Amino acid sequence: MGAEPRAVSAVAVADLARTLDSLTTSVLLVDAKHCVLHLNVAAESLLGTSRYQALGRPLNELLRGADLLLSMIDRVVETQRPFSRRELTLRPAGGEAELVVDCTLSALDDSSHFGAVLLEISDATQHKRISRENALLAQVGGSRLMIRQLAHEIKNPLGGLRGAAQLLERQLSDATMREYTSVIINEADRLKTLVDTLLGPGHAPRKQLINIHEMLQHVWQLLKLEAPSSIDVARDYDPSLPPLRLDRDQIIQVLLNLGRNALQALVPASGNGNGHAQDTPDRVTERRIILRSRALTNVYIGTRRYRLVASVQFEDNGPGVPDHLRETLFYPLVTGRAEGTGLGLAVAQDLANRHEGLIEFESRPGRTVFTVLLPFDVSDANETA
């Protein structure tokens, strides 16, 4: 075990603080008990707090889920050696958004700072998001090609199967026997509908200027009709959003698939929504879905930056998406429900992508948010490395 750390000199902290404030990198100074001695201006901005609110407070009061970070501080204090960690997820106590950061910790080993740790934080959230969105976009392209090839292979024999059943039905005089051919014909029709859904629309989006809230209101009304009385379907709209150029039918399908996915996550069943964990939502005192709209500026979708993007969110307080489905959630035929087809999210992602948009999600027990990003003007997009 290392030596018991001595108290850090207030004068030494003040001297160091002047140096740290001149840096553009986010830097915190904490003592061996994890209490904040100083944070510079860049760290105030990153963590969404002021130094006057943070000084003297334990780090785990400012950052939720900081247990790993605290153990890293203990390790540096004990060994007096620097330590680094990439892509550490932190959540500032004042907000819901997660931060993905790269951290470097160093012990201040001179006599005046003995026991203090210098914590340098670099925001890696944007880099991780771009990497994740590029992976989602690659999924869309790869699964679309695979689906089309598979669907065509299924569709051809289905037509022959249905035609043969119809011919056989005409030759049968026994009504009971004709019931069997009807089953074959109906099942062939059901499979053809499923294949057509996999193939998606056979035309490019027929775009027109439209108010996103008109479509959201339509979806909200449908969800209200489908939802049990115990589930609250709430709205949180930003009325200042300008019209977007969209294919109304395709985007309504996107929104409806996401809304029903959220609804299924809250309805007791053998399994939950398309990708949501199997659980009993009765653990939640009030089951709730929120439809939310916002305008975002300078947003990256993959490697392209858009000046203005509409963000439409479906938030539910269900059990969340299980870990084993997170990486494949938008692949077709992936579902967390025994009775599900696994097509809802795959189709929604494909249709959003046809509008240069993307669907992403974040999930933990008690809060799952699916976000549709739709650019206002594709001509404003800039390619980035």
Description of the molecule:
The chain has 3 domains: 10-123, PAS domain (Beta-Lactamase); 128-199; 208-383, 2-Layer Sandwich (Heat Shock Protein 90). It is elongated, with a radius of gyration of 27 Å. The two termini are 47 Å apart. Helices cover 40% and strands 25% of the residues. The chain has 385 residues and is α+β, with helices and mostly antiparallel strands. It has helices spanning 10-20, 41-47, 51-54, 59-62, 67-79, 125-171, 175-199, 212-226, 248-266, 344-353; strands at 26-30, 36-39, 63-64, 83-92, 99-108, 116-123, 208-210, 231-236, 244-246, 287-301, 304-316, 358-364, 367-375, 382-383.
Identify the notable features of this structure and list them briefly:
385 residues, alpha+beta, Beta-Lactamase, Heat Shock Protein 90, 3 domains, 6-stranded antiparallel β-sheet, 6-stranded mixed β-sheet, 10 helices, elongated
Show the helix and strand layout.
Layout: H1 10-20, E1 26-30, E2 36-39, H2 41-47, H3 51-54, H4 59-62, E3 63-64, H5 67-79, E4 83-92, E5 99-108, E6 116-123, H6 125-171, H7 175-199, E7 208-210, H8 212-226, E8 231-236, E9 244-246, H9 248-266, E10 287-301, E11 304-316, H10 344-353, E12 358-364, E13 367-375, E14 382-383
Parallel strand pairs: 8-10
Antiparallel strand pairs: 1-2, 1-6, 3-4, 4-5, 5-6, 7-9, 10-11, 11-13, 11-14, 12-13
Helix pairs in contact: 6-7, 8-9, 9-10
